[in-house]
Amino acid sequence: MSTIAIEPPRLVGLAPPPEKPASFLGQFAASKGNVFETLPRSIFETPVVRRGRMLFVHDPEGVRRVLVDNVANYPKEKLSDEFFTAMFGEGLLSAAPAKWKRHRKIMAGAFDPRSVGAYAPVMAAEANAWAQRWAQQPDGAEVDVAEAMKALTLRIICHTMFSDDAEELIGLAGTALGFTNDALDFSLLDILPVIGPMRMEAKKARIKADFSAMDGAIYRMIEARRANLEAAPNDLLTRLLAARDPDDGQGLSAQEIRDEVITIFEAGHETTAVAMTFAFYLLSGHPAQAAKLHAELDAVLGGRAPTAEDLPKLVYTRQVVEEAMRLYPPAPAVTSRVAAGPDEICGQAVKKGDHVFISTWVMHRHRAYWDDPETFDPDRFSAERSEGRPRFAYMPFGGGPRICIGANFAMTEATLILAALAQKVRLRMDRPQDVKLRARITLAPVGGLKMTLEHREAGA
Questions:
Q1: What is the pTM of this model?
Q2: How do residues 162-173 score in pLDDT, each as one tens digit?
Q3: What pLDDT digit, counting tens, does each position of 98-139 carry?
Q4: What is the 3-state secondary structure (H, E, C) of the chain?
Q5: pLDDT, greater one: 210 or 81
Q6: β-strand 54-57 against 348-350: which pairing, if any?
Q7: Backbone phi, then psi, for 455, in 5-degree steps?
Q8: Which of 108, 255, 263, 344 is 20 to 30 A removed from 55 (C-alpha atoms)?
Q9: pLDDT digit string, tens, across residues 263-316
């Protein structure tokens, strides 16, 4: 076993925010990195900050006002909806309210605890196969953890959704989603009156072309399954095909299922990969927390592969995932809304046309709700320390009616991945890297994240 001693890496994004104010909207439009790291300290200390016609709301009750209590007064930004519709069609992330309500009602059963429990063996099998693959690598082998987690979570979402038909989709989905993420990169040009719409049309055309092969495969599977639904595997696609509106008995059309499949691919693949990448990144710089994680894995698993039945006992493992998503939320900017009429948020008057922004990055590091917010401390998610925490202080899956339908799916998947991999290997940063963060739809390390594998045995 390797005994190389290294200094803990300098983890990005854990420094206190700067004192000086910043023109953060302009920075966001022009930035190629993570603009949230440059936000002024006042954003992390006050409930509402106004900059002209922009309100930045980072108070749990204020967030509740926008996302729940008066949600009808705060429709999403038109540009935001255009981005999501261009990529996902009219899935849950972008559908108009009436359509969203109908789809959510129909799809609920496919993501309830019993259904997620049925997907868990597939998640565990893929995670354990990846752990074995890493275990066969020599000590000191270098891996790009960001790319590895994308590949693993893509395999999991494909196999839970398409069973034996998954292999065809894995290559098609990886290519299409990679191209589309690049196409949706935001620029200051996207908000200009004439150039912006032209750029959006060009992006839509590219996205349509990128997804053409994947769309063809999905439609063929839908047609084949519908022709003999009783003999179809009991996976996510079959459940969507069989799902019915409890009120009128109607199901989803082929186009609607396609749109939801693409939405699930992105929401259930990219975001979980981000969470796992930063979980390993944080553990590499915090040996005490890594040792506590390994001790739990040794006690619960004893060297065997984790299963869904182990989840209730993997308490600290889950807390590591939760804390990683607090410090590095996979979707760092939850939403931007436009006030349809006057209102009041935390004593601040809101006028019609005001832009309202909510950021999970800020909520998760706000000094009013978190002690030592830049510190990696998974124990803050213990039952004792979580008691009394405001509901909207922590929102990695969003909040309100449109909270991510796959939250339980994602937490089950992430906990099994961390358990399977961390009991087999440690991941270290053996050489200096200028790790930078890039925040767009999701958060990611620019250029990936190179880490070194070190084998471990139970108890070591």
A1: 0.90
A2: 987 788 888 787
A3: 898 999 999 999 999 999 999 999 999 999 999 999 999 999
A4: CCCCCCCCCCCCCCCCCCCCCCCHHHHHHHCCCCHHHHCCHHHHCCCEEEECCEEEECCHHHHHHHHHHCHHHCCECHHHHHHHHHHHCCCCCCCCHHHHHHHHHHHHHHHCHHHHHHHHHHHHHHHHHHHHHHHCCCCCCEEEHHHHHHHHHHHHHHHHHHHHHHHHHHHHHHHHHHHHHHHCCCCHHHHCCCHHHHHHHHHHHHHHHHHHHHHHHHHHHHHHHHHCHHHCCCCHHHHHHHCCCCCCCCCCCHHHHHHHHHHHHHHHHHHHHHHHHHHHHHHHCCHHHHHHHHHHHHHHHCCCCCCHHHHHHCHHHHHHHHHHHHHCCCCCEEEEEECCCCEEECCEEECCCCEEEEEHHHHCCCCCCCCCCCCCCHHHHCHHHHCCCCHHHCCCCCCHHHCCCCHHHHHHHHHHHHHHHHCCEEEECCCCCCCCEEECCCEEECCCCEEEEEECCCCC
A5: 210
A6: unpaired
A7: -65, 145
A8: 263
A9: 888 777 889 999 999 999 999 999 999 999 999 999 999 999 999 999 999 999
Residue type, 4: I
Superfamily of domain 24-455: Cytochrome P450 (1.10.630.10)
Structure tokens, 451: 């880490």
